[in-house]
């Protein structure tokens, strides 16, 4: 302090010169930035106050002090709970980093230049050495999940990766961590511990947790014979994890009564490291929730991994992504969401690590809709000179490359939380709309200039196969965008009719497009092949093409059947809501009196994401206003719901994917519940969760019809 | 004693002793007429623990002593 001068008096007398209540500030400082400042002595912001509330044991905690067997087991149990609490919307300083041993290992690693696994130490006692291996293993797993989170998850929504600028063992190899844990297991076996099995199960469980991210490197033999050895070996890891979890859950009494070294878990880290965090209490979701969530992680990954091994074709892949991942995503643990996204599409653009790449998927997706055996996609059938062929090829390659980017964007949607799925779909709509414009221009140009193209039927109408595929994908995205909005409860009660009404329109367009362009075009190609076959010598090749096209059309028809049933349900909901309005239960039109702005403006705002889309043409407010019928009867609604129900029941008979079956069943139940609701309910209009996330329950007691 | 204009302190490295014995070292960025400070690039020392805390607002009521290094003080006068 010798170099300092006390200016307390000088300074405060100096500020008395400040006039007119102004502040004196640096010219480089924007006062708005001041809102980010941490206010000293404000208990809600200032973590520097934390030491005042800590006990002497917490303040003076020594990590190298020998621990007992009970403390080892108790600490590992506590750390598992803190780990899963971190995944439950909490932060590292409030969970795992509140353990002094974790802070010591990770902080030491961050500060050290010598970064080998052998450099870690938490004291010399046997149990201290075992604890060291456990803490290193846990920190490594956290480090991996931070990387996964930064790569494919959303900060604060899925996971909080803020790590107090600590390095969670980035350069330590997972294999070294697993070996170190194995050595720790050996140490326990050779020790005088009384509950060796209890401790070993905890160490094994951590080994299995660290093995989970291996999934994102496994290579699936997509559409082929599953690699049973690989399947078994990963299943073994998962099964062992599940077994350990069961053991631990069954011995809750034991684990929960073990001691913790006094002062080992506290708010210390919040005061000792960076002050960029809001102070908070240590967060612990408890034993039951921890091991329930962890079991879910293992069970879900087991299911996902098994299913991916048995995906037999592109249709099955599509169903898997839609019903097993996208619709189920809310049930998946954040660990699995992250790992799955990395597992699905790799850095080298391979799908599930197979030899099947994004480019193959893009071509297959198109071929399995309507592009197979087209003039436009088959340069051998072009009758052009070399220079022109090269020119058209270049343009086609560019289009396919852009299409790949669109397919990639769609693949990134699946494992996100539902809010992000909707946001990404909104973004992808623009991508697919631009692709459609680009593709139409390309197909029209090569048709006009080089006569490359396909006829839709015996008329001269251009089939525009690539553009038709893109349009079909875009329509699905538009429908999904509105439906997820219903699931997320984004729409107000008075808007709900307009949303179903719009979906009804889009599904009709989709069905019409699928039937009148996609199916029809494939049928036309089949008829051409049959005619050609009679005269051709190469009958076998033509027969193979015919068979493939027939299969494609069967799959298309199956999909159309689903959409027909779905559209009937949507149509029924529109009728139902129209009927409820007629019964004066709710108002969907003429809402001017209730708003600051006009309902028309609200309507336009709601469908703004479709404004820039050229086709299908956007529905207007005038069309909406005239969509209500004044004579909808209860019988008409019930008949419509019954028809939807029958169509969906019929469709469900041919469904093989379990989760799709369940999904369709929930739609069928929705039809039943609406019919029941129509026959009696409360005397107010209410919207509450229904059997299917896209169809809430509408409750309204109607006047008794005399 | 000559009074130094408050503007002159802006941008200087100050040491603030708080009433709870913590010490803050940082650059004075803003001061208001009530003596509340806004300091940037602040390091907090609490007993033996020293850490970076960044941008900090220090209410007048929490300030026990203010120090400045001798050389800076000479240049301000």
UniProtKB/TrEMBL annotation, chain A:
Q: Which GO terms describe its cellular component?
A: NatC complex
Transmembrane region(s) = none
**Stretches assigned to coiled coil:** 532-559
Q: What superkingdom does the record give?
A: Eukaryota
Q: What Pfam families does UniProt report for this protein, alphabetically?
A: Mak10, TPR_NAA35
The compartments listed are: Cytoplasm
**Record key words, sorted:** Coiled coil, Cytoplasm
Q: Where is the NAA35-like N-terminal domain?
A: 21-178
* Domain NAA35-like TPR repeats, residue spans: 333-661
What family does this chain come from, according to its entry? Belongs to the MAK10 family.
Task: State what protein this is by name.
Answer: Mak10-domain-containing protein
Could you tell me which species this protein originates from?
Answer: Candida tenuis (strain ATCC 10573 / BCRC 21748 / CBS 615 / JCM 9827 / NBRC 10315 / NRRL Y-1498 / VKM Y-70)
UniProtKB/TrEMBL annotation, chain B:
Write down any Gene Ontology CC term.
NatC complex
Q: Which Gene3D superfamilies match?
A: 2.30.30.100
CDD domains in alphabetical order? LSMD1 (cd06168)
Coiled-coil regions listed: none
The record's section on Pfam families has: LSM
Q: Which domain of life is it from?
A: Eukaryota
Q: Where in the numbering of this chain does the Sm domain appear? A: 8-59
InterPro entries, alphabetized: LSM_dom_sf (IPR010920), LSMD1_Sm (IPR034110), Sm_dom_euk/arc (IPR001163)
- Tell me what this protein is called: Sm domain-containing protein
């Amino acid at each position: 302090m010798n170099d300092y001068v006390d200016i307390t008096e000088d300074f405060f007398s100096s500020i008395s010169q400040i006039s007119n209540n102004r502040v004196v500030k640096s010219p480089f400082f924007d006062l708005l930035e001041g809102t980010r400042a941490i206010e000293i002595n404000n208990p809600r912001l200032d973590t520097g106050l934390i030491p005042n509330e800590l006990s002497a044991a917490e303040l003076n905690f020594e990590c190298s002090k020998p621990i007992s067997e009970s403390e080892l087991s108790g600490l590992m149990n506590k750390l598992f709970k803190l780990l899963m609490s971190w995944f439950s919307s909490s932060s590292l300083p409030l969970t795992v980093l509140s353990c002094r041993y974790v802070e010591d290992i990770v902080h030491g690693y961050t500060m050290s230049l010598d970064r080998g696994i052998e450099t870690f130490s938490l004291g010399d006692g046997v149990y201290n050495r075992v604890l060291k291996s456990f803490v290193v293993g846990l920190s490594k797993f956290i480090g991996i999940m931070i990387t996964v989170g930064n790569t494919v998850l959303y900060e604060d929504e899925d996971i909080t990766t803020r790590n107090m600028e600590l390095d969670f063992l980035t350069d330590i190899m997972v294999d070294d961590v697993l070996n170190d844990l194995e050595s720790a297991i050996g140490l326990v076996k050779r020790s005088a511990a009384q509950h060796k099995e209890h401790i070993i199960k905890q160490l094994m469980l951590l080994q299995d947790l660290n093995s989970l991210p291996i999934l994102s490197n496994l290579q699936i033999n997509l559409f082929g014979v599953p690699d049973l050895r690989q399947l078994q070996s990963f299943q073994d890891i998962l099964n062992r994890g599940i077994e350990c979890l069961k053991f631990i859950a069954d011995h809750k009494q034991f684990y929960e009564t073990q001691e913790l070294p006094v002062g080992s878990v506290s708010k210390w880290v919040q005061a000792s490291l960076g002050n960029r965090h809001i102070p908070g209490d240590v967060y612990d979701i408890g034993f039951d929730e921890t091991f329930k969530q962890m079991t879910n992680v293992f069970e879900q990954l087991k299911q996902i991994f098994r299913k991916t091994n048995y995906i037999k074709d592109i249709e099955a892949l599509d169903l898997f992504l839609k019903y097993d991942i996208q619709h189920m995503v809310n049930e998946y643990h954040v660990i699995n969401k992250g790992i799955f996204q990395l597992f699905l599409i790799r850095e080298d653009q391979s799908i599930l690590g197979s030899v099947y790449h994004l480019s193959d998927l893009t071509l297959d997706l198109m071929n399995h809709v309507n592009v197979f055996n087209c003039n436009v996609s088959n340069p051998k059938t072009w009758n052009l000179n070399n220079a022109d062929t090269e020119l058209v090829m270049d343009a086609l390659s560019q289009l396919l490359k852009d299409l790949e980017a669109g397919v990639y964007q769609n693949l990134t949607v699946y494992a996100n939380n539902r809010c992000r799925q909707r946001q990404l779909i909104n973004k992808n709509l623009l991508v697919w709309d631009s692709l459609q414009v680009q593709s139409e221009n390309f197909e029209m140009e090569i048709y006009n200039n080089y006569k490359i193209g396909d006829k839709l039927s015996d008329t001269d109408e251009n089939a525009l196969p690539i553009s038709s595929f893109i349009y079909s994908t875009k329509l699905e995205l538009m429908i999904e965008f509105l439906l997820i909005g219903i699931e997320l409860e984004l729409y107000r009660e008075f808007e709900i009719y307009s949303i179903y009404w719009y979906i009804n329109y889009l599904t009709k367009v989709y069905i019409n497009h699928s039937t009148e362009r996609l199916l029809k075009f494939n049928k036309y190609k089949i008829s051409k092949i049959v005619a050609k076959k009679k005269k051709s010598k190469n009958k076998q090749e033509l027969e193979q093409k015919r068979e493939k096209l027939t299969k494609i059309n069967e799959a298309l028809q199956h999909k159309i059947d689903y959409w027909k049933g779905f559209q009937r349900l949507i149509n029924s909901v529109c009728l139902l809501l129209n009927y409820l309005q007629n019964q004066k239960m709710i108002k969907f039109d003429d809402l001017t009196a209730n708003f600051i702005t006009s309902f028309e403006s609200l309507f336009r705002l709601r469908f703004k994401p479709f404004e820039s889309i050229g086709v299908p043409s956007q529905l207007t407010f005038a069309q909406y206003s005239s969509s209500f019928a004044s004579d909808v009867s209860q019988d008409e609604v019930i008949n419509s719901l019954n028809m939807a129900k029958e169509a969906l029941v019929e469709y469900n008979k041919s469904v093989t994917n379990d989760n799709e079956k369940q999904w369709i069943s929930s739609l069928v139940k929705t039809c039943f519940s609406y019919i029941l609701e129509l026959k009696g309910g409360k005397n107010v209009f209410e919207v509450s969760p229904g059997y299917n996330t896209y169809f809430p329950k509408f409750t309204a007691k109607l006047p008794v019809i005399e | 004693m000559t009074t130094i204009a408050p503007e002159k302190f802006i941008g200087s490295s100050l040491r603030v002793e708080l009433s709870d014995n913590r010490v803050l070292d940082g650059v004075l960025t803003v001061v208001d007429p009530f003596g509340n400070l806004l300091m940037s690039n602040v390091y907090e020392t609490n007993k033996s623990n020293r850490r970076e805390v960044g941008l900090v607002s220090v209410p007048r009521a929490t300030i026990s002593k203010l120090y400045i290094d001798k050389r800076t003080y000479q240049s301000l006068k």
